[in-house]
Each structure stands twice: as C-alpha cells, then as structure tokens.
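Why should sequence recovery work at all? Because a backbone constrains its sequence more than one might expect. Tight turns favour small or flexible residues, buried strands favour hydrophobic ones, and helices have their own preferences. The token representation captures these environments compactly. In the example below, the structure is given first.
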C-alpha cells in the first residue's frame, strides 16, 4: 500500500511545473479529470505513507514537509491533457502498447551486435578487431565493456576516425543517441554509459555515481583506450559530465557540445529534489510502481506523446531488469549541484570549439542556462523553438548536424 501511495504522489509531482513547486504551489497549469481534487489526494496519500514504519514513513514525512499548498487550489476539472496519460487510468492503451514493445530495443541493427570484453589495458583480445573497426561498416554498433580502475565501464561504438564521445543523462542510457548515431559517419563514435545507469545499474551499487565521479571515470576511460583527444557531447546530466571532464583535463577535450545539459545551479530540478528527499521510500518500490513517475518525467520532457511513448519503452527496460525504485533512488541521491558549481568559473578559460544546442521549451533546463553556457564558451545558442528536453530523441537531425559541424571545425584546426 505504501508503494501505491508514493507512486501516485510522485506521478502527480512530476506533472506539476517545476516553477510551481519552487513557488510553493502544487496546482498544475492545465487540468485533468480526476474523481477528487488532486492536491488534496496527493496530500492524503503522502499522509498515509507517512504513517508507515521507518524508514519509508520517515521519508514520506520529510517529503510531506516540502509540499506547501498555495491559496485557491480547488477541484481540478475540464479536458485532460495528453501529458497526464498515466494518471487516473487516462491511457491504459498506451501502457499496453509500451509493455508489448519493451522487450527488444528496436534501434539496434538487425544483426546481433558482437560483444567485446576489453582487457583492463584497453586492448582487444588477440585476434579481435580494434574498437570502431569491427567490420569496417559504419552502420554496425558494437558493445564493449572494460575495467577502469576496478569499475566495469560499458559503451557502444561505431565507425572510425576522430573520436566523438556521447554521454547521456537521467533516466536514460546510450540508447538516448539511437537516432543520432547513424548520422555520424566518418568518425569513431563512442556512446558512454554512466556507472549506475542503463545496463550498468548493478555496477552502481556501492560506487560513487555522482556527476563529478562520472567525469573522472570518463577521463580515465579515455586514457585507458589511448584516446588523447575527443569531441565531447553531453545531454542532461551528461552535459555536466562532459564540461566537468573538459575543465579537469582540457588537453583531452578537442571540442565540446552541450544540449539541454545541467550546469551552474540549474539542477537538480525541484521535482527530482522531492524524489531525492523521499529516496528511502523510493528505494522500496518495485519496477512496476516506478512506471507512472518515469512516464510522467518523459512525457513532460518530450515534444509529443508519440515520442514519449517510444522513449518509455526503451528507458523503462533497464529499471525493470535492474532494481526499479532502488536504482532510481541511488541515482537521485547522488546528484550534487556542487559538482558543477566547482567548475563554473573555469568554463570561460576553455579554449575549445564549442556548440550549444537547446530546446527552448525545456521545462527542466531553461534556455537561460544554454545562453550562459554560450557566453562562457564563446559561442552562440542554436535554438530549437518549441523543442523540449530530450533533444537527441526529438530532434536527432539537429543534434547530429551540430556534431558534424563541430567535428569539421576541430579537423580544420588540427
């Protein structure tokens, strides 16, 4: 029962605009049919969860103290919005569609990719092809795992040439780049998986999976592979990882592209802060109970319901297979804004070609932060008007074109 209480409450919180949470008002800017006033329902559910034994009850009580109901919050009625598709059974047809399609990621090549387990030194096993030249075909994506200072690091790779490293965010994995990868021919593309995310969720247990630690791990991984310079591309948390990595080892960064990435004090977003406050309770949830919250997060961050649908089918699968709420609780608990604050003053000193690509309608990472990145990195913002948060999935052509343009500039400089 506690998991049901928290699931519905968390789903509602993810529907509420972050600016409303920050302002202390939990009234959505749009309406939705529901048998009772949603804010009161959420309050009652959290109250019921708070009556449960510790530590779950304590987490719910802490979460409840963060919820401040503004004046005039009345009954919600009217026409439902598509972004409420997981509340009150609004789209059971969507849920069944996602469940049917979740087993196999459709973005991988039809031929089964060859899994290569790299030795700790970074070299392939005798007789194996080198990463990026498995078959000589640009469209073949291979999976690799290598031990980096005692941590297994997984990545996907295709092509040969100038290394381009793609780093995802939360709640995604290298699959975030599935529509971008095929467009990056003529380069060696490596889609890095952060420890504790995607198929590497189990590896995150007992390890530091903060953004700062991921940046250090990324640099150590590149060093192990013998990559002296690479173009670094990041989205969401990955945007934080790549610019921290660039500041810490500037000689290794040949170029930098950030698309709707975290930076400065732009994160964690208010709804994630609420989830972090309730992390002990969140950790008790099975994967099934996590579906509404994850569905809402993706629905708010995608341009259309169809795009959110596809993303949900792909990004929910690792949570189903590797711990559900426990995995998400570890991820949100590790988020620390001090990681980006510590490097913000060094950004203007980075002398590298840079691109900033930003969905202007992003409800999580505001355009003002994209403009600040552009000023500090000596470039301009490529604005995606109407674009929301998950630009690599909703606007892969724009992101891929920006990466190609950056690669061309890097090559012209060398």
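From this structural description, the recovered sequence reads:
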């Amino acid at each position: 029962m506690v998991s049901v209480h928290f699931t519905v409450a968390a789903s509602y919180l993810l529907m509420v605009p972050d600016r409303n949470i920050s302002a202390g008002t939990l009234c959505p800017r749009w309406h939705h049919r529901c048998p009772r006033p949603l804010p009161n329902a959420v309050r009652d559910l959290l109250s019921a969860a708070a009556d449960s034994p510790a530590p779950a009850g304590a987490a719910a009580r802490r979460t409840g103290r963060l919820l401040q109901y503004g004046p005039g919050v009345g009954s919600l009625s009217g026409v439902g919005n598509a972004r409420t598709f997981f509340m009150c059974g609004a789209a059971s047809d969507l849920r069944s569609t996602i469940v049917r399609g979740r087993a196999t990621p459709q973005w991988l090549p039809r031929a089964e990719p060859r899994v290569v387990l790299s030795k700790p030194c970074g070299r392939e096993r005798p007789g194996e092809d080198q990463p990026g030249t498995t078959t000589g075909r640009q469209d073949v994506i291979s999976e690799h795992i290598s031990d980096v200072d005692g941590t297994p690091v997984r990545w996907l790779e295709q092509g040969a040439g100038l290394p381009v490293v793609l780093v995802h965010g939360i709640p995604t994995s290298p699959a975030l780049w599935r529509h971008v990868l095929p467009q990056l021919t003529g380069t060696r593309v490596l889609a890095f998986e952060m420890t504790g995310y995607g198929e590497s969720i189990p590896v995150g247990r007992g390890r530091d999976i903060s953004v700062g630690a991921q940046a250090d791990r990324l640099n150590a991984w590149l060093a192990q592979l013998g990559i002296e310079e690479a173009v670094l591309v990041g989205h969401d948390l990955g945007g934080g990882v790549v610019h921290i990595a660039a500041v810490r080892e500037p000689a290794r960064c040949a170029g930098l592209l950030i698309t709707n990435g975290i930076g400065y004090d732009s994160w964690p977003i208010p709804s994630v802060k609420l989830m972090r406050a309730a992390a002990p309770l969140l950790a008790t949830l099975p994967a099934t109970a996590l579906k509404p919250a994850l569905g809402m997060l993706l629905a708010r961050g995608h341009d259309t319901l169809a795009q959110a649908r596809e993303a949900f089918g792909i990004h929910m699968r690792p949570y189903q297979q590797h711990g559900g709420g426990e995995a998400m609780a570890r991820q949100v608990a590790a988020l620390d804004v001090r990681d980006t604050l510590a490097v913000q003053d060094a950004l203007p000193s980075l002398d590298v070609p840079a691109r900033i690509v930003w969905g202007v309608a992003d409800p999580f990472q505001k355009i003002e932060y994209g403009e600040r990145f552009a000023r500090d990195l000596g470039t301009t913002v490529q604005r995606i008007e109407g674009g929301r948060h998950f630009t690599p999935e909703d606007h892969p052509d724009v992101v891929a074109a920006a990466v190609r343009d950056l690669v061309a500039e890097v090559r012209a400089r060398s």
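A few observations help interpret the result. DSSP finds 16 helices and nine strands in the chain.
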